[in-house]
UniProtKB/TrEMBL annotation:
Organism encoding this protein: Ditylum brightwellii
Superkingdom of the source species: Eukaryota
Alphabetically ordered keywords of this record: Membrane, Transmembrane, Transmembrane helix
Transmembrane parts of this sequence: 87-111, 132-151, 163-183, 299-319, 339-360
Protein name: Uncharacterized protein
Keyword Transmembrane helix in annotation: yes
Length: 366
């Protein structure tokens, strides 16, 4: 059953029950609050299910290598590190987006229908709500497609049984449909496709900060807008690059090899959308309320924590935890990560991208 149907049923029942006891204004306000709470619960349920589904895909596809020769070289230690790499960035980011969407749903009343004003529609909170819904929906659609049609995303490898493909892809597709449904009902525009195209083009044209300064002592040069604009550009580029580039370059930035690198592009795209939302909030400088600040702080911290975890695992690999490297004896680094080492400039640029997201969060905190 579609989550939207469950929400509508709950909304109708709650409205009918409370309208018998309250006046018109109180009934509407209470119904809106209850609706927002219900939508927030569904966000948590579908979001956690998506994280569990991605975790299951990572464990299933990365526990062993389908090539017996490479499996003999890799071993358990390498597989465990690779699974950790697959979860290090997506899980904190996904949790941050889920929390932000849940908070925004409570603040905005979830599914307001058509009874909100143009001013409400253009507010930062509602714009962020729509933007994150679209980002999470596209991410979930990509993850669902990668689970359902794994060979198309992983150079012909098919490591999922039919039942596993059905369950994991259904989870991601359900999340995507729910987010798309909420997005479409939070806009006054009847032509959702046209609005989507205009919004995407407008966002691309607005990637650079509206007001910039090369003087770090000014507000424009020190409030983080430049850093998050750069994060948006880099995350957006690295979301597209693995899809259109051949291996070995396609393994960056996720460093997950042929089996899962292209599937992980969905999370990189969600990071780009999150970075853009943070940049937009800084530029508009209207998130003055404590709830708004807490919500954007959650997004910043989720992005930064995921980047830190991602870089930490890369550092372990470079040190040589996986059979040797730059410090520890052995040649494991060169044996099991040949693709990432074959494109050093691209790999270093992806690390810079994650470092910038950490630096921007630290700078805003200070």
């Amino acid at each position: 059953i579609s989550p939207l149907i469950l929400i509508d049923a709950f909304q109708i029942r709650r409205t009918c029950d409370q309208s018998l006891q309250m006046g018109p204004v109180e009934s509407i306000n209470s119904e809106t609050t209850g609706n927002g709470r219900s939508v927030a619960y569904v966000y948590v349920a579908t979001g956690v299910a998506s994280i569990v589904s991605w975790t299951a895909c990572a464990v299933k596809s990365l526990t062993y290598h389908p090539d017996a020769t490479l499996e003999a070289i890799c071993g358990f230690r390498h597989n465990a590190l690779t699974i950790g790499q697959a979860l290090a960035f997506p899980v904190p980011l996904a949790f941050a987006v889920i929390v932000a969407l849940s908070k925004l749903s409570l603040a905005l009343g979830g599914v307001p229908g058509s009874n909100f004003s143009v001013g409400d529609e253009s507010s930062l909170s509602r714009t962020t709500f729509r933007r994150l819904n679209l980002g999470f929906a596209v991410c979930s659609l990509w993850l669902g497609a990668s689970a359902a049609y794994m060979p198309a995303f992983s150079c012909g490898y098919q490591l999922y049984e039919p039942y596993f493909r059905v369950v994991t892809s259904a989870v991601h597709f359900t999340t995507a449909l729910f987010c798309l449904g909420i997005w479409s009902r939070n806009t006054r525009d009847q032509n959702c496709v046209a609005r989507l195209i205009r919004g995407v083009i407008g966002s691309i044209m607005n990637l650079m900060p509206r007001t910039v300064s090369d003087d770090p002592s000014t507000a424009e040069g020190s409030d983080g807008r430049n850093e998050y604009a750069l994060c948006t550009l880099l995350f957006g580029w690295f979301a597209v690059m693995p899809v259109v580039s051949p291996f070995p370059r396609a393994t960056v930035p996720s460093i997950l090899g042929r089996r899962l690198s292209r599937a992980a592009s969905g999370w990189t795209l969600l990071a780009a959308v999150t970075s853009y939302a943070i940049k937009d909030s800084i530029e508009k400088d209207i998130c003055g309320g404590s709830d708004d600040r807490a919500m954007f702080t959650t997004l910043r911290q989720g992005l930064a924590f995921g980047s830190a975890a991602h870089l930490f695992i890369i550092a372990l690999k470079l040190i040589g935890v996986d059979g040797g490297g730059l410090i520890l004896p052995g040649n494991g680094l060169w044996q099991v990560y040949p693709m990432a080492l074959a494109v050093p400039f691209t790999a270093i640029l992806s690390c810079i991208m994650h470092f910038v997201s950490m630096f921007a969060n630290k700078r805003l905190k200070s």
